[in-house]
Amino acid sequence: MLRVFLHYGIHFIVPIFVAFYFFKEQSVKIAILLLLGILIDVDHILANPIFDPNRCSINFHPLHSYWAIIIYTLFLFFKKTRILGIALLIHILADVVDCGLLFLQSK
Question: pLDDT tens track of the chain, all 107 residues?
Fold first, then answer.
């Protein structure tokens, strides 16, 4: 239950917090953009089964690969892609926490 709460809490609460704390003038617009970071889960349709609660997404799905994460990090350095980079890295953070808790749960 903690794993589910943390995973979805990071997916939905952290983007809203980041938007309202760091982007006060455009907080609602930025919150919506950050929440759209969850769209990278579209790559799950390539997996069989599409959803497996005991699978770590990191480096399993193409948009969750280490190469993709490097590109998302590079997005932070450019003003035009910074919000997208933040959105995608928040999503990756949620998945990393989920993978960590999955690993601890298996011990």
Answer: 888 899 999 999 999 999 999 999 999 999 999 999 999 999 999 999 998 989 999 999 999 999 999 999 999 999 999 999 999 999 999 999 999 999 998 87
Q: Classify each residue of 1-12 as buried b or exposed e, where b means 16 or more C-beta atoms within 10 Å of its C-beta.
A: eebeebbeebbe
Gap between the Cα atoms of 97 and 42, Å rounded: 19
pTM flag (> 0.90): yes
Residues ≥6 apart with Cβ < 8 Å to 89: 69, 72, 73, 76
Q: Secondary structure of the chain: what % helix, strand, coil (to 5)?
A: 75, 0, 25
Amino acid at 74: L
